[in-house]
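Morning. Coffee machine broken again, so started the prediction first thing and wrote up yesterday's gels while waiting. Chain of 178 residues, entered below exactly as on the submission form.
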Amino acid sequence: MALTEIARETSKGASLVEKAKQLHPLFAGEAARGEAKGMLTDATIAALRDNGFLGMWIPRCFGGSETGPVEFLEVIEQTSYSDGSTGWVLMAAQVAMGTAAAYLESGVANKLFAQRMPVIAGQGAPNGRADVEGSGYRLIRNTSTPARSCMRTVRPACSLAAGFPTSAFSSCRSRRQS
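Came back before lunch.
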C-alpha cells in the first residue's frame, strides 16, 4: 500500500485518539515486556505503524495525516496513559519526523518518505559536539550519556534543526516532486 493510501485509510473511520483508546489493552499489556527489553516491543511498534500514529505530524504530501496540535497532544496523552514509554517514544519520534518533513530539502525528503514512513529519533539538547574535519564535521557524543535506541527501526536525526514553524505544512505541495 502506497503512503498516500495509508494516509487516506488513517483519515477514515476512527480518529487517532479513538484508535489510541482502542489500543490501550495492547499498549498497557506490552509495557512490562518493553521495560524489561529496554525498548518498545515489536507488537507495540507494529500497532503504532499499522494504525497511522507514525505519520501524525507528517504532511499529507509525504503520506502522513498532518494531524493538528490538539489531536496530536490528545493521542500522546492517551498513549502515555496506556504506557509512558510508548507515549514518550511516539512524541519524540513525531517531533523529529515532522521536523525532517518540514526542513529537509525536497529531494532528500522525497527519498526519505518514498518507501514507507521512516522512524526518526533524536533530541535538540546538546549531548556532544561537532568538530570541523576537512570539509565536514565529526560528531562526538558525550560518553556520560548512554546511547540507547527505543526502537530497532530508528534512524538517527543528529543534524536536524530544532523548531517547528506553523507554516511548515502549507508549503508542502510546492516541495513535493512528482
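The chain has eight helices and four strands. Going to sketch it on the whiteboard this afternoon.
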